[in-house]
Amino acid sequence: MSRSSEMEKKICSVILDTTVAVQQFRIVPKKTKPQKIYTFSNDESLNLLVEQLSTIGEFGITSRDGIYAKAEELKNSVDEKTEELKALSNEAPTLKSEIAQIRFYFENVQNRRRLDSMGQVRLAAAKEVVDKHGIRSVSEIAELEERLKLLPTYIRTVQNKLIEEQARLKRVNRLANVYESVIEGELY
């Protein structure tokens, strides 16, 4: 059996104090679900404290500094996923245009067409795109087209991961608020 951290002990102490105060009618409890009968499992304050114990255990937090370190880590993760999502979202329209430019380049290079000055400018721009993606033949365009098809899936995956990280960050921030209230004696 693992030893409880000081954080867990403080929260457990507040849970015990709260249950005793309710039993002795020193405080009026607030129900989590108003339509249900009051029990300790339907007590808003107790449920909040138990959730914090769950968060401590899930994230392996053992100290007050650990809460803020985990919050910072999760905030950085949320920021990274937000940037990744922006990049993927911006990639779709760009990629579609770049595929068209790559096709234009290979059609004109393979057929050795004579181009007017505007066509030569387009060809030079297309050459930059070809070099950017490292495309050497028409067959390699399929890889870019496959990526374009899969972009919505990639975007959804990153969105889901972002939502998860935001929820985890919210839980750790809530733990920080509750723990500060426990230390300051604001929670019974």
Describe this structure in words.
- The protein is mainly α.
- 76% of the residues lie in helices and 0% in strands.
- It has helices at 6-23, 44-59, 64-111, 117-133, 141-183.
- Helix 1 runs antiparallel to helix 2 (44-59), helix 2 (44-59) crosses helix 5 and helix 3 (64-111) packs antiparallel against helix 5.
- The longest helix is centred in the middle third of the chain and has 48 residues, at 64-111.
- The mean pLDDT is 91.
Oligomer state equals: single chain
Strand tally is 0
Averaging pLDDT over every residue, what do you get?
Answer: 91
Number of helices: 5
Distance between the termini: 28 Å
Fold blueprint:
Layout: H1 6-23, H2 44-59, H3 64-111, H4 117-133, H5 141-183
Helix pairs in contact: 1-2, 2-5, 3-4, 3-5
Please summarize what this structure is.
The protein is mainly α and 188 residues long.
Name the descriptors.
188 residues, mainly alpha, single chain, rod-shaped
